[in-house]
Design brief:
265 residues; 11 helices
């Protein structure tokens, strides 16, 4: 074990002094390591950290961590003896390396899943506030005015949407880009309705607004239903925990009573 610790210290020391430079190695083999990169990793990083995140730096840090863990694992195999077969040891080292390499990806993916759930609940309420503004302003102006009061998670997407419209893009693409950024239930359909609402004449606007309003109300109802189900599930879990704890407590008391009776005899 002492040899392993010394080896790890030397490995880190050589990396610090530049004798073994992991960063250079990863950079020189960038094309090779990029084949292991997940197709949605950049998108997930953007969802968590925003547009200013350095994709290459984040991915190279993952690769570097994986290489270090692999080398430490090989060092452990070489310097230790045991009943395990050499091939099994190699498989275990590869498995641990894979888990370390995937750790950051799984972290941002789990964040995104939770983030999507939050978006799914909040988007209908944002659209409702937007609907009220559209009654008094054009769709682009209403979107601009809604920015300050919108949930924080939507602001980056709304700024991009506003920037595209201000740049003269009158197509549906800016709206679809927003929907793709927040790919939750009915987001594509709502953005299409919003785009058509902006195109319609003043005479047709009221009819289109009614359709938009009904759709938003349906989404709000679904959101409330989801929240209600989540509350019920939490209450059920708490109840089950309390019942389990109470049952375990009663069993312990009964066992102690029985033991006391026998020891008393």
């Amino acid at each position: 074990m002492e040899i392993v610790i010394i080896g790890i210290i030397l490995l880190l020391l050589f990396n610090y002094l530049g004798t073994i430079n992991f960063n250079t190695f990863v950079q020189d083999n960038k094309v090779l390591f990029s084949k292991l990169k997940e197709s949605d990793y950049d998108f997930l990083l953007t969802a968590k950290y925003g547009d200013k995140v350095d994709f290459d730096a984040k991915y190279q840090a993952r690769v570097k961590s994986g290489i270090i863990v692999f080398l430490i694992g090989i060092l452990v195999i070489i310097t230790t003896t045991g009943s395990l077969n050499f091939a099994i040891k190699i498989v275990l080292v590869l498995a641990v390396t894979y888990l370390v390499f995937k750790n950051d990806y799984n972290s941002v993916k789990n964040y995104y899943k939770y983030h999507l759930h939050d978006i799914n609940l909040k988007l209908p309420y944002y659209l409702k506030s937007l609907e009220i503004l559209i009654q008094h302003y054009t769709v682009p102006v209403a979107i601009v005015r809604s920015l300050d009061q919108s949930p924080e998670m939507f602001k980056a997407g709304l700024r991009d949407l506003i920037a595209s419209i201000d740049a003269g893009d009158s197509t549906i693409e800016p709206y679809m880009a927003f929907a793709r950024r927040y790919p939750v239930r009915d987001s594509m359909r709502m953005m299409r309705l919003l785009y058509r609402l902006g195109l319609g004449s003043q005479e047709r606007k009221q009819d289109q607004l009614i359709v938009f309003s009904r759709t938003v109300s349906n989404l709000q109802a679904k959101s409330r239903e989801t929240k209600y189900k989540e509350r019920l599930e939490k209450m059920e879990k708490k109840t089950m925990t309390m019942l389990t704890s109470t049952g375990a407590g009663v069993m312990v008391i009964l066992l102690l009573s029985i033991l006391q009776m026998f020891t008393g005899i």
